[in-house]
Specification:
199 residues; 9 strands; single chain; alpha+beta; 25% helix
């Protein structure tokens, strides 16, 4: 009897902690960002080739490969909320590994929301389900202490839409305490970016 009660309690806990994704990213994403997302593998191939030609520091290449080469696991969406350390690697004609900053993922009524909350380049946006091993990030970038802005397609009435601030990425989970987001063909500075998040 106690085992049955425990099983029912666990089932109830699972039901209450399941993250609901309120929308399908395919109905939100702008055509330019859909093009970037469709060319994700191309961005990595071109970025890696450009970076290799620039003779990057071996230590920076090692950091990139340690993040990028790990296989995907199923994303544990119910365990993503909370505080994370995060850093960005920009890959293109140069390879740059940035310092660690603060990120957080919050569970909201509309699903999971990612925010980079320290450093000069900020980011905020929604995470949308896309199969068991990845989430799609539709967000927008800001600078320093500027207030967050919505993804342009979600701006709505009376809110400024800035397509130039839009950013799109794919989140995967290579380890229980690690996440990575690949941003194909960002608007500035690189051919692709990778954000690593660690607990």
């Amino acid at each position: 009897m106690r085992r049955i009660a425990l099983l029912l309690w666990l089932l109830g806990l699972t039901a209450t902690t399941t993250v609901a994704f309120a929308a399908d990213w395919k109905t939100i994403i702008t055509p330019p960002d859909r093009s970037r997302l469709d060319r994700l593998a191309e961005s990595i191939r071109k970025g890696d080739a450009a970076a290799a030609a620039s003779n990057p520091a071996p230590a920076d290449t090692k950091v990139l490969r340690a993040i990028l080469d790990l296989p995907n696991r199923p994303v544990a969406v119910d365990q993503l909320a909370g505080n994370w350390r995060c850093r960005t690697i920009k890959v293109g004609e140069i390879l740059v590994v940035y310092s660690w900053f603060k990120c957080r993922i919050a569970a909201t009524d509309d699903g999971l929301r990612l925010e980079k909350i320290s450093g000069s380049q900020r980011l905020s946006g929604g995470l949308y389900a896309d199969g068991p091993t990845r989430l799609v990030l539709l967000g927008a970038g800001t600078v320093n202490d500027e207030p967050p802005v919505p993804y342009s397609a979600l701006a709505g009435d009376g809110r400024p839409a800035d397509p130039d601030a839009d950013t799109v990425g794919v989140l995967t989970q290579p380890a229980p305490d690690r996440l990575r987001i690949v941003f194909p063909f960002p608007r500035y500075e690189s051919i692709y970016d990778v954000m690593e998040l660690r607990r």
